[in-house]
Write a structure and sequence with these properties.
The chain has 383 residues and is of the alpha/beta class. It has two domains: 200 residues, Glycogen Phosphorylase B (Rossmann fold), CATH 3.40.50; 160 residues, Rossmann fold. 38% of the residues lie in helices and 17% in strands. It contains 14 helices and 14 strands. The strands form two sheets. The chain has an eight-stranded mixed beta sheet with strand order 3-4-2-1-5-6-7-8, with helices on both faces. A six-stranded parallel beta sheet has the order 11-10-9-12-13-14, sandwiched between helices. Helix 11 links the parallel strand 13 and strand 14. It starts with a strand and ends with a helix. 47% of the residues are buried.
Length: 383
């Protein structure tokens, strides 16, 4: 079967592809699929086709200027991406990731007479709603675009029960055309084991983009609430989104306001292997997002044997088992998060037990199983 995951806002290189798409592609290839990952060209030096393996290719299509763009600017180039997609050879299945890719790929799938499958990864908050209910739309086209692909696609694949509910209630998807396919964990990278002996250890780790939705400000505020005698360092690993270019300066100002300049380190985006090493060395991984469709970062931390304190939001309620692999927080008050951090740091035996159970829990999630479920659903559409 020749399948094509399309990702219009993708970064345009194999390392920057959405983690879920990348691992799904190679796991599907192991089942005998030929998979093309199709994304927008974001650099003039990117070739039309890159062979990632014998069965997986990365293809770059023109859609706007060949440079990285803020998400808020990419939807102006949906039609161009769609035209480029239509010029490619016919695929058996078109599987779109994110709403812009779906809007571009849906008419192509209809013209070819092939199934169109939609994955969202995030869904916008409705206009006028609180940020905690989801991502703010980058443009006026996002909410109607999400509704279009949710209702017109042959199948919507959600990553969690929380996302399934969202696409039904917020986007209008029909329940009988929504299935849940959970993500996996690459245990060759994210595994428990000895961390770098030169690392200081005992720190807190935040690993996500620096944008309000992900809540790094809450992680900083929580650290300030931990008693000074027990207060660890906080490492903030993540890049700044183009749509929130000034946000990092706000975070540095917040650190200064709390007098935490010697306790908070901004270390930028990290390669996957180094991120796993950081997770293994951390006492706790913090995931203070307002909303997550799943929260893969929490699952990867658990696979490394590190407990997680996370918002009780969206799919994080499925990634983290409250009281067993970490703690889920209903509150967004820094004092409450600081109390939770203090409690766990003060009970090392509990932290160790949670880390052990976290590894066991994470083994439930495998990219091989993800691929088997995708294969089954693709074939059902083709029968």
């Amino acid at each position: 079967m020749h399948t094509s995951p399309a990702d219009l806002p993708g970064s345009g290189d194999a390392g920057g592809m959405n983690v879920v798409e990348y691992h799904q592609a190679f796991a599907l290839a192991e089942l005998g699929h030929r998979v093309d990952l199709i994304t927008r060209r974001s650099d003039p030096d990117q070739p039309d086709v890159v062979d990632l393996s014998d069965a997986v290719r990365l293809r770059h299509l023109p859609a706007g200027p060949a440079t990285k763009l803020a998400k808020s600017l990419i939807d102006a180039h949906i039609d161009e991406f769609s035209e480029g997609l239509a010029r490619l050879e016919r695929y058996d299945v078109l599987h779109s990731h994110h709403w812009m890719s779906g809007v571009a790929a849906l008419p192509v799938a209809r013209a070819w007479g092939v199934p169109h499958v939609q994955s969202f990864h995030s869904v916008a908050a409705l206009p006028g709603s609180a940020l905690s209910e989801g991502e703010p739309p980058e443009s006026p086209a996002r909410v109607p675009g999400e509704a279009l692909v949710a209702t017109a696609s042959d199948l919507v694949i959600a990553i969690s029960a929380a996302e399934a509910r969202t696409v039904v209630e917020r986007c209008g998807a029909e329940a009988d055309r929504v299935v849940i396919v959970p993500p996996g964990v690459d245990r060759t990278v994210f595994h428990a084991g000895a961390s770098d002996p030169t690392a200081s250890g005992g720190y807190l780790l935040y690993a996500a983009r620096l944008q309000p939705l992900k809540g790094p400000d809450l992680a900083i505020g929580a650290l300030a609430e931990v008693p000074a005698a027990l207060r660890p360092d906080l490492l903030i690993a993540g890049d700044v989104s183009a749509d929130f270019a000034a946000y990092e300066a706000d975070l540095h100002a917040l650190v200064a306001t709390h007098g935490l300049q010697d306790k908070v380190r901004f270390i930028g985006p990290q390669p996957r292997e180094q991120l796993a090493e950081l997770m293994r060395g951390a006492s706790i991984v913090l995931v203070p997002s307002h909303s997550e469709t799943f929260g893969l970062i929490a699952l990867e931390a658990e696979s490394c044997g590190t407990p997680v304190i996370a918002s009780a939001a969206g799919g994080l309620r499925e990634a983290v088992v409250h009281g067993e692999t970490g703690q889920l927080m209903d509150s967004r008050q820094p004092q409450d998060w600081g109390t939770a951090i203090t409690r766990l740091l003060g009970r090392p035996a509990l932290l160790q037990r949670m880390g052990t159970v976290a590894q066991i829990h994470a083994r439930r999630f495998s990219w091989d199983v993800t691929a088997l479920l995708l294969d089954l659903n693709y074939r059902r559409l083709l029968w």
